[in-house]
Specification:
The chain is of the alpha/beta class. It is built from five helices and five strands, in the order E-H-E-H-E-H-E-H-E-H.
Length: 141
């Protein structure tokens, strides 16, 4: 694996009224332990606020967490908000309670990972690292 030229900066976002933040907090700690900088905006965010913060903070990747089964709608809003703020080059990964029928839809939007409960932390970290590496080496980066 290629050496990262800069520290991965990840923003963790929870959109809407999802009060279940334990997974996001565990991920924040695991990402920090893996050497990443983490910005956790907390609960009750909008896709618009997360996208704006991601662009303003020059993050490497956005990690969305949802435990209400609404990721399909959250992802739609996130991608539109990233377009609005000029952040379409920022990769988006997702996790939480994601319906299997929604995974192909999310992947077509460009949202990857789509991890469910119980996914091993090294799997998520590896995906983040590879996604950022791929994004950083793309011609648009």
């Amino acid at each position: 694996m290629a050496v990262q030229s800069k520290t991965i900066r990840v923003i963790i976002g929870k959109v809407g009224c999802d009060i279940h933040e334990r997974g996001a907090l565990v991920l924040a700690r695991a990402f920090r332990d893996a050497g990443m900088e983490v910005i956790y905006l907390g609960r009750y965010q909008t896709a618009d606020a997360i996208a704006k913060a991601a662009v303003d903070e020059d993050v490497s990747i956005i990690a969305l967490s949802d435990h209400t089964g609404s990721m399909r709608y959250i992802a739609d809003e996130m991608m539109a908000s990233l377009k609005k703020y000029g952040g379409t080059d920022i990769p988006v990964v997702a996790g939480g309670l994601i319906a299997k029928k929604d995974i192909s839809y999310l992947e077509k939007l460009g949202v990857t990972g789509n991890f469910g409960p119980g996914t091993p932390l090294p799997t998520v970290i590896d995906h983040i690292q590879k996604t950022v590496e791929k994004s950083s080496s793309s011609p648009e980066a």
